[in-house]
């Protein structure tokens, strides 16, 4: 069982190192940093969307202002024509009615245009308010984020020595592990974060499947790798 013992010791050292890494990754500061990162991203998306909206509203407003301007010019032309027609004795009642109808229609179109322009202006004001509020909030969040990042770096820095010790220990243990076993271990590790499972009450400690007697015997007599037929983890009898 020497080879398997060495491999087990290697895994334990790896688990210990992973635990430290997990601790570093999950401190309150790191969690808050991740939250802020998400928040900043969504704020940036909102800012981009609002600025797009404002631009679109403004271009609509410009178009509308042009249209209303043209309608007003025509109204002026037709109004002065009405004055002329009224003074002209040869003009007919039909001509007068038609012109008045045109003027009424133009007035309606202008009012409609002005109403639409007012609606657009309200939208622009609202979007601009939202934009400024979001920009301020994002600025505040960014400051907080930068401070937290420094704190997280310090936290990581503070445990760098500890991690280095783990790496040294792992490198040392790796030398005592049979290279063939280590290679197999790393292959299984692609599917299972913790590749070796201890046998507990004749069951695979990884997937909990009961192991047949033949297999238990094989494990007890082999100093090498026997994989669980169910989950593929490497089985280790340990102290059992
Ligand atoms: Zn299993």
Question: Helices and strands in order, then pairings?
Answer:
Layout lengths: L1 H24 L2 H60 L5 H66 L1 H17 L2 H11 L6 E5 L2 E2 L8 H9 L12 E3 L4
The structure holds zinc ion (ZN).
Zinc ion binds next to loops.
What does this structure look like?
The protein is mainly α. The protein has two domains: 12-163, Helix Hairpins; 178-236, no CATH class. The protein is built from six helices and three strands, in the order H-H-H-H-H-E-E-H-E. The chain has helices at 2-25, 28-87, 93-158, 160-176, 179-189, 213-221; strands spanning 196-200, 203-204, 234-236. Strands 2-1-3 form a three-stranded mixed beta sheet, with helices on one face. Helix 1 packs antiparallel against helix 4 and helix 2 (28-87) runs antiparallel to helix 3. The protein is rod-shaped and about 125 Å long. The chain binds zinc ion. The site of zinc ion (ZN) has 9 residues, from loops.
Characteristics:
6 helices, binds zinc ion, mainly alpha, 3-stranded mixed beta sheet
CATH class of the largest domain: Mainly Alpha
Q: What's the N-to-C terminus distance? A: 12 Å
User: What is the total domain count?
Assistant: 2
Major sheet attributes: 3 strands, mixed
Listing every helix as H and every strand as E from the N terminus to the C terminus, the arrangement reads HHHHHEEHE
Low-confidence stretches: none
Structural class: mainly alpha
